[in-house]
Amino acid sequence: MLETSAGLGQLITILIMATALGMDAFSLGIGIGMKGIRLLHVLRISVLIGFFHILMPLLGIFTGQYMSSLLGQVTNYAAGGLLILLGAHMVFNSFKAGETRMIDHRSLLGMLLFSLSVSIDSFSVGVSLGMFRSDLLLTVLAFGICGGALSVMGLLLGRRVSRNLGEFGEALGGVILMAFGIAFIF
After folding, report:
1. Structural domain count, the chain
2. Does residue 133 lie within any of the structural domains?
3. 85: in domain
4. Angle at 127 between CA 177 and CA 147, to 5 degrees
5. Structural domain contains residue 1
6. Percent of the chain scored above 70 by pLDDT?
7. Amino acid 103: pLDDT
């Protein structure tokens, strides 16, 4: 019974983190969607984001497991601190004014760069989760599905609403990561 509740707690934690990380793809997707985007590009970008949201935390988890073997008892503090820094960075970036993106999201290179840029923070979270020995398959699938799904929602929503909504999505994701970082430390 105790193992089942621990597994459920881990599942809920991973899903919340995956959603928080996907908020970056959601918020930036709104901006791209507002520029006008074809449904085919929505699909391509979302699949690439889902792929990178699987690859980056996977690499991060392996790195975190290695670091855990090196750091020992300091692991909780390092992982929590990393999440706090990443969350604070997301909140800070969400309020930067007047930043323009020069990447053409319709080209293959533009789609790859955009997908990688919104997925890079998944690496850091993967490092933290690797230190805690989280379930590998569950983690990467949750990150990939949430990243891809939230990017679809952001891109499609961007076709219909104003640009200001996207900034708050990234800030919310950052606050959630900071809260988990504090919880890992204490």
Report:
1. 1
2. yes
3. yes
4. 55
5. no
6. 82
7. 58
Tokens read off for 34: 């507002």
Give per-residue pLDDT as tens, 10-47.
889 889 989 988 887 887 787 777 777 888 989 999 99
In the chain, which ranges are continuous DSSP H helix? 2-34, 39-71, 75-94, 108-131, 136-158, 164-185
Classified as helix, coil or strand, 160 is coil
Instruction: Please state, as a whole number, how many other Cβ atoms lie within 10 Å of the Cβ of residue 106.
Output: 16
Structure tokens at 64: 């975190």
Global pTM reads: 0.73
Residue 2 predicted with pLDDT over 70: no
**Residue tagged 């805690």 (tokens):** 132
User: Are the C-beta atoms of residues 140 and 58 closer than 8 Å to each other?
Assistant: yes
Task: Look up the domain containing 178 and give its range.
Answer: 11-185
Do the Cβ atoms of 184 and 79 come closer than 8 Å?
A: yes
- Give domain status of residue 101, yes or no: yes
